[in-house]
Amino acid sequence: MTIYCHATLDASLRSKLTETLPEHTIRYRTDSTSQDEAMSYFLGAEYILGNPPGEWFNQKPEKLKFWQLDSAGFDQYSTIPLPEGVKVANMGDWFARPCAETIVGGILALYRGLDTLTLLKQKSEWVGSKLRTDLKLLYNQNTIILGAGTIGQAVNAILKGLGCTTHMMARTSPDADLHSREELLEELPNADLVVNTLPGTATHFADAEIFSKMKKTSVYASVGRGSTTDEKALMEVLNSGQLDGAVLDVTELEPLPSDNPLWKMPNVILTQHTGGGHRNEHMGKVDLFLNNIFAIENGGSPANEVDLFRGY
After folding, report:
1. Does any domain span residue 35?
2. For a 10 Å CB count at each end of the chain, is N or C smaller?
3. Contact status, residue 224 vs residue 254, Cβ threshold 8 Å
4. Taking phi first (over 0 means left), then psi (-120 to 50 degrees means alpha), and beta for anything else, what does residue 192 get?
5. What is the pLDDT of residues 35-72, one digit of tens each?
6. For residue range 2-14, what is the model confidence (pLDDT) as tens digits?
7. Mean pLDDT for the stretch of residues 142-159
8. What predicted TM-score, i.e. pTM, was given to this entire model?
9. Residue 255, SS3?
């Protein structure tokens, strides 16, 4: 079997793959691999680990049997032409907990003024008691979570643990108590916090209408996909004082352009799409890839199998 590893792995993880699969030919993409070399590895692969550029699939890797994405999201691949019978798997809930901890951490930082205090530390400026009256408690906040997938569920668990009242919005999930945009719009005026965990298929779901219905002094946070937030509308309500602030792990353009106004807004925390990151991030990718290869070669199905065209 021939494997192409598009994911960038360190030497120890490359060694783990090579030693675990001694009868497989594994081609690794490294910093010194040219585009032509990587493309040739890709086209000849039976198994792929990682997220190659979507346009590469226009040349069709005809031998491909299994593709292990190294992400949870895959909306950028919804229209690519895959050879018939190819199985595809994503990372499932691997990134859910770190994403949830990042967005809740950002919300806590905004509520408790930690972002402001960090900037004051850089200037060796003591403000102390003057800041106290601007601080908010996350405890007992009424929260709406948009999306009931793995990230939404993890956010829900953490916020409940911190004493929040939570509502989840999803069309069909039995875990949600809001199932339509109309129900959401009715509940928004009661919400202190809205956390967006929606997939990229929900383009600009969080728009001017949503923001206009949110309670004055409420907070908006997003850790799903940047495309689900209408950033122009968000900036307008932030500038008007309709919202207290925003925490954004994802943005419509990434990297966020240096002239984007979000950089300069004091009531915005940007975590630069680091939400899914953690020390063992790449180890989990390799372990899942290996488990799925063994499952397929023994006649089974891969864990976290997805349908690119359906989006789940």
Report:
1. yes
2. C
3. no
4. alpha
5. 999 999 999 999 999 999 999 999 999 999 999 999 99
6. 999 999 999 999 9
7. 98
8. 0.92
9. coil
Residues 80 and 102 in one domain: no
* Residue 58: CB atoms within 10 Å: 9
Pairing between β-strand 25-28 and β-strand 2-5 as defined by DSSP bridges = parallel
Contact 7, 21 (CB under 8 A): no
Question: Same structural domain for residues 138 and 245?
Answer: yes
Four-CA torsion 151, 153, 157, 162, nearest 10 degrees: 60
Tell me what pLDDT residue 75 has.
86
Claim to verify: residue 245 and residue 289 sit in the same structural domain: no
Contact of 244 with 234, CB cutoff 8 Å? no
Query: By three-state DSSP, how is residue 244 classified?
Result: strand
Domain count, the chain: 2
Shared domain for 144 and 218, answered yes or no, is yes
Verify cis geometry, omega within 30 degrees of 0, for the bond prior to 255: yes
pLDDT of residue 137: 98
| CATH assignment at residue 108 | 3.40.50.720
For 142-162, what is the mean pLDDT? 98
36 occurs within a structural domain: yes
Instruction: Say yes or no: 129 and 258 in one domain.
Output: yes
- Same structural domain, 88 and 146: no
Range of the structural domain that residue 144 is part of: 96-270
Task: Note whether 226 and 251 are within 8 A (CB).
Answer: yes
Q: Domain check: are 258 and 290 in the same one?
A: no
Helices marked H in the chain — which ranges?
A: 11-20, 35-43, 96-112, 114-122, 129-132, 150-161, 181-187, 208-213, 231-240, 281-297
